[in-house]
Design a protein that fits this description.
Rhopdopsin 7-helix transmembrane proteins; 22 helices; 14 strands; 733 residues; binds adenosine-5'-diphosphate; six-stranded antiparallel beta sheet; six-stranded mixed beta sheet; alpha+beta; Heat Shock Protein 90
Length: 733
Amino acid sequence: MLSTQPLSALVAAIVGLAIGGSVLLREPRRGVHVLFATFTFNIALRNLFSFLAAGLESDFFNWAAMLAAVSLPATAQRFFQRFLGDEAGPPPLLRSTVVGAGLFYLALCFGRFVDTSLYHSTWFNFAFAIYVFAGLYLSVYYLYRRYRATPSRVEKIRLLYLVVGGVATVTAALLDVAPSGSSFGNIFIIIYLYFLSQTLVRYRLLDLNELLGRMVVLATLVLIVTLIYGVLVKWVGPDQHGLFFFNALIASTAILIVYDPLRSRVEGAVNKWMFQEKYELTRRIDNLRADLMNIIDVRESVPRVMAALEDSRRVTHASAYFVDPDGSGYELAGHIGPRPEARLDAVANRAFFERLRRAGVVSIEGLEREIAAGKNQQTEEKQNLLLMSRALELLNGSVVVAIVGEEQLLGMLVLRDERLREAYSSDEIDLFRGVAASIGVTLQNSQVYERMKERDRLAALGQMAAGLAHEIRNPLGSIKGAAQLLQPIGQQSSDSTTKEFLDIIVEEANRLNKIVSQFLDYARPYRGDPSPLDVNDVVKKTLQLLEKEEGASRIEISSNLVEGLPPVRADPEQLRQVFLNLSLNALQAMPQTGKLQVSTSLRRSTRRGATAAFLEVRFRDTGVGIPPGDLRNLFIPFFTTKDKGTGLGLPISQRIIENHGGTIEVRSQPGAGASFTVLLPIEADAFASYAESKKGPPPLPADRRTPVLLPSLEPVRKDSAKDPLPAGGRASR
Ligand code: ADP
């Protein structure tokens, strides 16, 4: 009958192999994973041999176990060296450890082939144990040294756990080999290896509770699975091999089928029993997600999310941000706790948003760890990390979870619990990610819903407008016709007022007709025919038309068109209409003299976390400018400051550009002129071939199939363009 020690050695060998194998399978090419697997396999091999030595009472395996143990200090030190990174410097006495290993290999070979009494002698065994355990303690000391030196709070906690666990494990293993012969060492080894593997696989520190929870889950599952297996295989007698395999097959099938539901049940039960708080959070968040499924309007979802988070008592600060309609920044939609920054600019925080879009989560601990780990990082990289930390500070958050849809960053959920240092475990962050995913779905649904509503509204408006136009135009035609018929009589009349009134009737009839036609343009659905075109051509044609306009001769019109720009997909007629509207407005804003400059160029900017390219057409005048109070009204139908204006030019232009997936930005200072900038998205393919032909900037990383912008739905006030005009009011849609 074997004692418990060899049996525990066998278990440690098997579990060690499983742990090492699982880490290696995850990322077989990562150096630190390979070194960890080497270390675990080394332990497993030693334990396997020592089990065989005891089981078979074999001197050979006893010798082999010692042979395997020789390399333990070196493999441990190499693994920890890679694990801690270059920052930690070389492990202490690594060279002596390797030399010592060489000497012991030689001695063991000598002992095996020449004089077996050597490795049976007490002094040899003593020296051997000193070498192995001193080497292992040195590895733990190496961790401790790093623990003392590291500036990162998160890293410190993680290393502290590893140091304490390391000391306990090496000491327990030492007690195992001591003459008293306990058998706890192997249990410690299993737990420590599992803990190490978890810290390797998951960057975020697993707190002790979570680790404990995982272990209880694992142990319960192992017990249940063993029970199923035992019941099905136990009654088969030793001589019935066929039946044994058959039953093992059935048992394995049954286990695989019940495994997933069983695991979630066990996890639920363990969480409820051990971590009431976490169980509560999971329950609340599940309810919240179910609730969110019934909401269409995303504005309604934010207060509910905030209320649920507040009720959970797991956050002291939380906020939700959504992307602006033109994607140039993220605006606060709701918060609990102290008010964070109202808006985060997408360009200024490009690195942060790119990271968030790609990784899904950004946490202050993660950033701190990266900053601490990479002292010799490129300065730009380091700068980016610092900027990201700054963004987190502005948001008042320790964890930010991305709200994504169609690979675009639509918003973010920011969380913080100021009472705790490591407030959220990775499982809890996963829960928050679930909430963010639900908000993302609601957001997309709400956009589709808004678009449908807008489309219905415009369709109804279009029908009404068409009916109204018919009703107005017919009598209007008669009025104008009658007035024109009477005009010759008026001219002959001695009463000059008759002629004047008749002229007014004709003029006003014309104006009314123009308003009705323009309103029809605004209300009728988009009927353009987009095709790839060179925007410069459209600008040139517009300028030709403009020269014929009344008052154009007073104004100095110049153009600055960058040649060879990539094509944009647009309807030339409609673009011309927009450009003409903007140019005429500029002319009208300069009653005496002035300058109108039209320029085209390329703009790269960050929209919804992704880099995108736009073609920019700017109309800059030196006219009267726009008062700040009027800026927000510019795009509202019928807003006009002109006696004979219709107030429809800009709304029509805006609809056309939005239908092309673009935006119009406005900047102005009263008295100093205005600048209207039309931004048209360039399709990623077109930009890629343009970049290729120019051998200029590399192609965009954005999704090549989709146009770069989504049409916006609501009016906004912001601008990220570097405009040459002095800072003043601005608006864009
Ligand atoms: P309308 O030209 O018929 O008034 P628009 O929608 O084209 O209608 O313009 C709305 C208003 O925007 C104008 O009445 C004017 O006050 C203001 N506006 C537009 N462009 C300019 C500009 N370049 N300079 C100053 N104000 C402008």
